[in-house]
Amino acid sequence: MAKQKPTDRDLYLKFSRPSNNCLLCNVPLNIEGAHPTLLEVGGREEAIRKDFCPDCWNKKDQQTYFSFWVTNRVNKPTAKERRLAKSERNEALWRLFSALHASEGDDLAPQLFLLAHLLMKYKVLTFTGSRDGMLEFTHPKLGETFMVEDLPLDSTDFVAIHQQIEGQVLDYAPEESPAEEQAIVGDDEENPAQT
Fold this sequence. Notes:
Oligomer: single chain
Order of helices and strands: HEEHEHHEEEHH
Strand content: 15-25%
C-alpha cells in the first residue's frame, strides 16, 4: 500500500512543541501556569508556532495569524526527580524488608516473599538459589544473604499482601535531611552555618 501524500490540513496540524522560553524576552515558560501561543503560516505553507509570556503578548504589535490559543503548562518532574522517587521507593521497600526479616515472625512469610521479589525486580536484591524450601537472596552492596520461605503462588492472596505493603512502606520512607535538601536544590556553595 503506497503512502498517501499529506493533506493541507495535516500540514497545518503538524507544528513544533511548546517553547520553554518566550520568543521576545526569553523568560522561562515551562513553569506551572499558562501562556499565549499563536500559529502563523509560513511562506511554504508550513505552520510556525510562537510562544509568548503574557507581558510580551500584551506589548506585541497587532498582526495577523492563523490561529491563537492559551497553552497550559504543568510542571512535571524531571527524569532526575523521577529516579529520585524510585530510589526513595527502593530504600523504603528495603527498610521494610529488613525490619520484617529481623522480626522473624511466622505470619510474615507472605510479606517477605513478595518484598524479596519486588526488591529483586528493582535490582536491590539478587536471587542466588533455593534449598530446603527456602529462597536465598543477596544484597550485592552489603554482601548479606537473606533466606525467605518459598511459597506457592496460589497459596496466598498476594494482591492483599501488596496493598498491606503499600500501606506500610510509607512508614519506612527516608526523610529528607537539610543537607539532602541543599543537594537537591543544587547549591554547591559551602553553607556558612556549617563550619
